[in-house]
Amino acid sequence: MKKYDAIVVGAGHNGLTSAAFLAKAGLDVVCVEKNDYIGGAAVSRNLYEDFWYSNCSYVCSLLRPEIYRALELHKHGLQVTPYGGSVTFMENGDYYGSYQDAEVAYREMARFSRHDADAYKTYSADTMRQCRFIRDFLLSTAPDPTSFKPRDIRELIRIGGKFLDMGEDRMYETIRFWTMSVAEYLDEYFETDVIKAAFSGSGIIGTALGIHSPGTAYVLLHHYMGDVDGNVGSWGFARGGMGAVSNSIAGAFQAAGGELRTEAGVDKIIVRNGKVTGVGLENGDEINADVVVSAMDVKRTFLTCMDKGDLPAEFHKRVENFKIRGSSGKLNIALDGLPTFPALPEGSSLYNSDMHFIDSMERMERAYDDWKDGTWSKDPYIDMLIPTLNDPTMAPPGKHFMSCFVQYCPHQVEGRAWKSEEKDAFAKSVIDQIGNYSPDFKDLILHVEVRTPEDIEREIGITEGNIFHGELTMDQLLFNRPVPGYAQYRSPVAGLYMCGSSTHPGGGVMAAPGANAAREILVDLKRRNTVPENFGDD
Ligand SMILES: Cc1cc2nc3c(=O)[nH]c(=O)nc-3n(C[C@H](O)[C@H](O)[C@H](O)COP(=O)(O)OP(=O)(O)OC[C@H]3O[C@@H](n4cnc5c(N)ncnc54)[C@H](O)[C@@H]3O)c2cc1C
C-alpha cells in the first residue's frame, strides 16, 4: 500500500495552507476532506439558482500578506477588494455612520459629540498600537516560557524587547487592554451610547461573552489587526466569495504536486506504539504516513477521532476543558433587488458597508442575556453586508446576495437540539430586525439559508460551531493555545500535529496556524523551510 510523507486532515483554508507549504518543500502530501467540497468555513456555495453565498465567513482582512505572496495566490485566482465603513441604525430614525475618510468621520461623530470626535484619534492610535504589537506574533510560533530551548529563549527576549520599547505607561495599558471588557475600554474614550454600541460589536463577534465580560477588548483586535493591500484595519471581499481564498490555496497545493481527496472523512487517527501511522477513513480505507496533520478543531481531533488510551490523561483532560462554545448564527439571503434604507441619504456609500441595528450598550448586553438563557437573541446584533454591491459575480444582474452574521445564537436551545420551528423563529427575528429599517426588504427575499451553530457543526465539523475553533480569551491564547505545553503545533503523539484555528494565533481566515504548523513540521523533518516567518509589513 502507498505510504505518503504526510496526511493533512481537513481541507479548510488552514489545512490547505499547511499542505501547500509541505508540498512546496517536496513532501508527498494528501489532504483528505469529509465534504464533497473544500474550504471549511471559508467557502462559496451555490445553493439557490445562480446565487453564490459565502456561507460562513464573509469578509477578508486577516489573511497574512506574506502567505498570499509566498503561495502566489493571485496566480490561483484570489482577488480581494476593500470596502469601507459601517452604519448603525437607531430606533429614533437617525443613524451613526462610520466612514474611512477622516474628515467625514470626524464631522459625523461630532454630530453626536464633539468630545467623542476629538477622542477618536487617541482611541484609534491606542488600538492600532495593540494591533501592531500582536501582528508581529501572528506568523511565528508562540514561545514556551517554561522552555530552555535557545529558540524559545530568543523569541521571549524579542517579545520582551518589543514590550519594553512601548515605554512604561503603554506597558501598563497593554496589560489592562488584554484583560478588560470592550465596554470598559470604550468608556475610557467615548460618552455617546450609539458610538460605543457601534464599536463594541467587534469585541463580541464569534464569542460566547458579552460586552461587559473581561477579555472582550482583546477580541476587538481580531477585527482590526488585518489589512487589505497593507491598509491595516481594512476589510475586503474575496471576489467570488470566501471560497476563492480556499480555492486559491488549493490551487497552490495542487500546483506543488499535492493530492486532494474529497468525501474522505477521517474516522480514526491511527496510533501504534506511541507513533502516528496514518488515518482510517469513514469508508473503511486506511491511508498511511509517518506524519498526520489535523486541521480539525482540537476537541474533534483528540476526543472524537482518537482513542483516549493513546493520549496522556492530563492532556486529554485539558482538551476536554478547552472552551469552544457556539454563539453565532448566519442567514444567507438571495434578493430580487437592492433593499432601501430610508434613514440613509440616496446613494449613500454606507449601503456598501457593515450594517448594524443595535444602538445602545444596554441592548448589546441584553442580546447576550438571551444566549445565557439558552436561546437566540430576540433583539439580535447583526453584522449585515451586501457583497454584490462590490462583487457582481455572486448573483445574477440586478439581484443581490445579503450576508447576515448574527450574535447571539446558541449551539443548542436550552440544552437540546434545535426544532425546525425554532430555526424559523430565529430567522424571523433577524429578518424582522432588518425589516424595521428597510420597508421593502421582506418583499425582495427569494431564498434564505439559515445556519445555527448546530448546522455549522454538522456541516464543517467545528465543535459547537464556534467560529474561531475555541474562544479567544487570554487563558487560550499564545503559549496556552490550545493546551499549555502543546502550543507549538505538536501533540503528545509522535508524528501527529495540529494546524487548525484551535492553535496559535486562532480563528479567522488568516492561514497563519496552517503556515506556522508546516514550518514546525519541516524543522522536525529537517527539510528546507518554505514558510515565511516574522516578515512583518509595518
Ligand atoms: C459563520 C461564520 C462566519 C465567519 N466570518 C468570518 C469572517 O467574515 N472573516 C474571517 O476572517 N473569519 C470568519 N469566520 C472564522 C473563520 O471562517 C474560521 O475561523 C476559519 O475559516 C477556520 O479555518 P480552519 O481551516 O482552521 O478550519 P475549518 O474551516 O473549520 O476547516 C476544517 C475542515 O476539516 C474538515 N473536517 C472536519 N472533520 C473532518 C474529518 N473527520 N475528516 C475529514 N475532514 C474533516 C471540515 O469539513 C473542514 O473542511 C467565520 C466563521 C463562521 C463559522
What does this structure look like?
About 35% of the residues lie in helices and about 20% in strands. The chain is α/β, with parallel strands linked by helices and about 550 residues long. Strands 1, 2, 11, 12, 13, 14 and 20 form a seven-stranded mixed β-sheet that branches. A four-stranded antiparallel β-sheet has the order 17-18-15-19. Strands 7-6-16 form a three-stranded mixed β-sheet. The termini are far apart. The site of flavin-adenine dinucleotide has 40 residues, from helix 1, strand 15 and helix 15.
Helices and strands in order:
Layout: E1 3-9, H1 13-24, E2 29-32, E3 44-48, E4 51-54, H2 65-70, E5 80-83, E6 86-89, E7 95-98, H3 102-112, H4 114-138, H5 150-165, H6 168-179, H7 182-187, H8 193-200, H9 216-221, E8 227-228, E9 231-232, E10 235-238, H10 243-255, E11 259-261, E12 266-272, E13 275-281, E14 286-294, H11 298-304, H12 313-321, E15 328-335, E16 354-356, H13 361-372, E17 381-385, E18 400-407, H14 420-435, E19 445-451, H15 453-460, E20 496-498, H16 512-524
Parallel strand pairs: 1-2, 1-14, 2-11, 6-16, 14-20
Antiparallel strand pairs: 3-4, 5-10, 6-7, 8-9, 12-13, 13-14, 15-18, 15-19, 17-18
Helix pairs in contact: 1-10, 1-16, 3-4
Residues 9-15, 32-35, 40-42, 56-59, 62, 265-266, 295-296, 300, 305, 328, 330, 405, 456, 460-462, 467-469, 500-501, 507-509 line the site of flavin-adenine dinucleotide (FAD).
